[in-house]
Structures are given as structure tokens and as C-alpha cells.
Amino acid sequence: MVPRRIRPRKTLLSLAVTAVTAVLLGGALTGVAEAHGSATDPPSRNYGCWNRWGSDFQNPAMATRDPMCWQAWQADPNAMWNWNGLYREGVAGNHQAAIPDGTLCSGGRTQSPRYNALDTVGAWQMANKDNRFTLTVTDQAHHGADYLRVYITRQGFDAATQPLSWGALEPVAQSGRIAPAGQYQIAVDAGARTGRHVVYTIWQASHLDQSYYFCSDVNFSGR
Length: 223
Ligand SMILES: [Cu+2]
Hints:
Elements: H1 12-25, E1 37-41, H2 45-53, H3 62-65, H4 67-75, H5 78-81, E2 87-89, H6 95-98, E3 127-129, E4 132-139, E5 145-153, E6 169-174, E7 183-189, E8 195-205, E9 210-220
Parallel strand pairs: 3-9
Antiparallel strand pairs: 1-4, 2-9, 4-7, 5-6, 5-8, 8-9
Helix pairs in contact: 2-4
């Protein structure tokens, strides 16, 4: 089924074939060539951009309706086609050492430049959530989880104007080990937060030392 080690590197030809196939099939494709996963609710930045625009990614209306997605698509469409491939390997749990401030949403510019535009500071489209919500990570590869760890920006931090840093985050939830499945869920309590926030999720996969990093933009109701 899923190879034990899936490498992101592709030949130019396979990239071209992937791009052509993506253009032809658009949103009909899920997972493309690499099956891993992402935060799907609330959606990570690149999963959200793929989900909203994958079948219509050349529509110029995106520039005004969803400008942060637009700049991401313009920067590198493969960040969206490979929404499930934003990970690092060999981090050994030292996430803060591996990921400099300002690059949290690209996993420390992993596979640069593919995911770099996910760090762009601006008004990313938000998912509306009540303050107690369930976060879902979709794992197409059934890697399992050593843990899910969830942070949220502290109240007062404005992700629309400030680069995301570790100092802006407060830990709010962590799971234990989770057996391989297609989806993992964790209950999150955002406390008294209101308005725009970034939910930052680390998924430590269990099949090898493979760590995933997801920025989900959320508008908290305060309820
Ligand atoms: Cu994987």
C-alpha cells in the first residue's frame, strides 16, 4: 500500500505531468501522487486554498475574494496540489529549533520554495468556530500519530499584520498516541479568545520521524 518512505522530490517530467493532470482534472484529484495528510477542519492554509479553489484555481476573482490564496497559488500551485505533504523529517521533537520564527506555516520553509507563501502575513480566510471545537487531521497514508499538539495565538496577537512566531503561541491541547486511521480528532478549548487567531497543529507521525505543521486561520465566536 503506502511506501514506508515517500519522498517529495520529483523529476521535472513528473512535475510537468502532475501539473498537466491537475489542470485537466482540477478538483477531481485528491492526494495526487503523495498520500500524507493535513489539518482539514479547521483547514490548514494550503488545504483550504485547495478545497476552495482547486477546481477553479485560475479564476482571477480569487485575487479579490481570497487574496492570500491567490498569492499562494501564484507563488507555487504545488503547495495546494500537495496539501498533504507539508512535513519535515528527523526533527527529533525539537520543533522550535527546526522552525525559525516567521516560517511556522511553511514548516520552516520545508521543501523550499514550495510552501513558502503560506508564511505570507495577511488576512487569510478564516473558519468560524465556537471556542470549544474539535480539530480534525486527515491522514490519507494511515501513518498513525505519536501525538497531536495544538497551539493557538494569544489574545491580542494579530495574525493579519504580524509574522507568526513561537512566542505568539500558547499550547492548548496534546493527544497521546493514536492508532493509524484516516482521521484523527482532538478536542480544543480556546478559552476566552475572540476574533482572528491561528491554530497551529503539530502532527508527529508514527511510521518514522516525520513531523507535520499546520496553520489554520480561525475566527473565534467567544462562546
Ligand atoms: Cu507521510
